[in-house]
Write a structure and sequence with these properties.
The chain is an alpha/beta fold and 316 residues long. The protein contains 11 helices and 12 strands. Helix 3 packs parallel to helix 5.
């Protein structure tokens, strides 16, 4: 599927819940997650939308939330989705709190790999930033995922000034020792993050200026992360720069929220309702095609055009 700017739309990110079992300070600090059952798509409805996208040519799928592993029925849902032909990549983004107990079932259901959200390697700082989380559960979850072949495992780390910019080398050495890839993501002004980004934003360039031991590698086509390694190691490091060096011209994705809204851009308030048509038994394929045509050319964060929905409401 091509949008009006000639981008091949082949990637769908699907949120299956707004709820989460953590309360990260820049995302959901006040236990705001309370996804309404009436508003939330059933997993069968979500499957019907995925199936339509699949028919239209989507080849890459990511399951997100909130925290997707807390959604009841997630394992049989994934098993059903993975039976769709021609899906080349089926992955999940998780905080990994429940990954240790679910890794085997996820692998058996056909999930290919996981991305894990982890902003610090320090147990006390992790407890603070997540509103009470236990980092040991996350680390055990990552090991369980590795053991079950849910790889390559990528760890997403949001860069937060005054909190974790001093941990870059520690993450790199952990990558070298564990084999996971760590991707540092610039803090984005989304929802609660709008307030956080005013004081806690730090660019990838600032990190790189202070870390001469990081060595840039050849950038493979299609990825959003610019790859680096730590000299003298096999560390796999990436920097994702939606703020300082946006990559909208290569965007190939659409997003489906847990409430059945289709978004062409993470940073836009434009949403196309699929749930109403689906529940009225109307065809959704024309609506999807129109949404792809309406996908905007670029975000406008530099003009302070922000979306005030939280990331947990959009899908991480």
């Amino acid at each position: 599927m091509m949008d009006s700017y000639g981008r091949d739309i082949s990637y769908l990110r699907v949120s299956i819940t707004e709820n989460c079992n953590l309360n990260c300070k820049y995302c959901m600090p006040d236990k705001k997650s309370a996804g309404c059952i009436e508003k939330t798509l059933s997993l069968n409805e979500t499957y019907q939308i995925i199936k339509t996208f699949h028919k239209l040519g989507i080849t890459k799928l990511r399951i997100t939330g909130g925290e997707p592993l807390i959604r009841k029925g997630v394992i049989p849902f994934i098993e059903k989705v993975t039976k769709l032909e021609h899906l080349k990549d089926i992955a999940m983004t998780t905080n990994a709190v429940l990954l240790e107990e679910k890794a085997e079932a996820l692998a058996d259901a056909g999930l290919k790999r996981v991305n894990v959200s982890l902003d610090t390697l320090d147990a006390k700082k992790y407890h603070l930033i997540t509103g009470g989380g236990d980092i040991q559960k996350v680390l055990r979850g990552i090991e369980a995922a590795k053991a079950k072949g849910l790889s390559p495992i990528k760890v997403n780390t949001v860069l937060i000034k005054g909190f974790n910019e001093d941990e870059i080398e520690a993450f790199a050495k952990w990558s070298d020792a564990s084999g996971v890839e760590v991707r540092f993501i610039e803090l984005m002004p989304i929802g609660e993050g709008i307030n956080w980004s005013r004081e806690k934003y730090i660019s990838a360039d600032q990190i790189l200026e202070n870390m001469p031991k990081l060595q840039r590698l050849e950038h493979t086509k299609g990825g959003t992360a610019v790859p680096y390694t730590l000299k003298g190691t096999q560390a796999k490091i990436g920097f994702i720069t939606p703020m300082s060096c946006k990559f909208c011209n290569a965007c190939n994705r659409m997003r489906l929220t847990s409430e059945g809204k289709l978004k062409g851009c993470l940073h836009s308030d434009i949403e196309i309702d699929l749930k109403t048509a689906l529940r009225m038994h109307k065809p959704i394929e024309p609506i999807i095609m129109n949404a792809i045509r309406l996908k905007q050319q670029t975000h406008h964060l530099e003009e302070q055009c922000y979306t005030h929905k939280g990331m947990y409401q959009i899908g991480g």
